Amino acid sequence: MKTKNRSNGEGHSYETPVRNGIRQVELSFVIPVYNEEETLDELTSRILEHVPDPEAIEIIFIDDGSTDDSWMVIEALADVHEVVRGIKFRGNRGKAAGLQAGFDAAVGNIVFTMDADLQDDPQEIPRFLDKIEDGYDLVSGWKKVRHDPWHKVLPSRIFNRMLSYCSGVHLHDHNCGFKCYRSEVTKTVKLYGELHRMVPSLAGMEGFRVSEIPVQHHARQHGKSKYGIERFIRGFSDMLTIGFLRKYKERPSHFANTWAAGYMSIGSVLVLTGVICGAALVKGLVLILTGLVFLAIAAVTTTSGLFCELLVRKNVEVQAALPEIAQTVGDVNALTLPMTDVRGGRTAKV
Ligand code: UDP
Ligand code: MG
Hints:
The protein is built from ten helices and ten strands. The protein has helices spanning 40-50, 70-80, 95-105, 125-133, 150-167, 183-188, 199-205, 230-248, 252-277, 282-319; strands at residues 2-7, 13-19, 22-23, 27-33, 57-63, 84-88, 110-113, 138-142, 179-182, 210-214. The protein is elongated and about 85 Å long. The relative contact order is 0.10. Residues 1-13 and 337-350 have low confidence and may be disordered. Magnesium ion binds next to loops.
């Protein structure tokens, strides 16, 4: 395989592999789009301006059921620029679904995600690449100076602190749309619902190395934000999911039984107290009945924990999951093993 050295004029040199005379896609840009017709043209030009090799990239726009002319703009851009591709959803499925479709389609070794509204600045691209070259698997942007209203910035600061604590991945800005990944991350992490806010946490849970760099952030010039105050309620709910998954993903019955033990203790104490008071007395009867309700809740909690174990077991069987292996030596069938390289990042199953 031949390689070409390119520089983007900002001191960042980059090697573009050439196979059979065709330049390979090195960088994939995954950009979810929901009613952003005004910015797509300029965003494309600015990305092309700031990448090390404009012919070795792909820009994948995922139109998330826009009701404006975004799709027409994407089609026009794809006509003009060979590197532009578009995916269109039938309806609005949300940013996470858009990112996941882009991750599935991307072929570059390095994948960028960016918002389509030009709040993220493509001139930061080389800095992300430098950080990836330092050995990180995911580099997240940090909107250190943020150009959003205070009622968005303040809850977001609290959210980031709490999520860092719950997930064990300590970032100032988990939800920045501008991120750079090794493709192993984008092929491993699965996004659904509104988990687009949780990508660094999910990657961290998989053992990938996550870092962040401060990035320039601009105020929205066109269109309007697609998220209101409800984002925080949903975000906090997803945070609970992440906290739970991090600890109990493979042993949900331990979680269920911790609660069941609590209910059972309360129930037993109530029943015993009721018996001591005398079942014939109203007070005793009420205590016994309340105790029995707690014991029933304990039984239901334990049973649901067991059902969750069944689901985990099924999942393990389907994926034929093996414990993460750091290295092998000799004639091991590496093609079937989910490997972890020496840096701790998992390489994709081949
Ligand atoms: N977006 C999307 N589907 C949605 C909502 C948003 O694809 O249902 C895209 C949107 O077009 C933008 C990015 O996700 O490219 C971030 O959205 P927005 O700028 O509204 O979020 P904010 O900057 O206000 O957090
Ligand atoms: Mg925005």
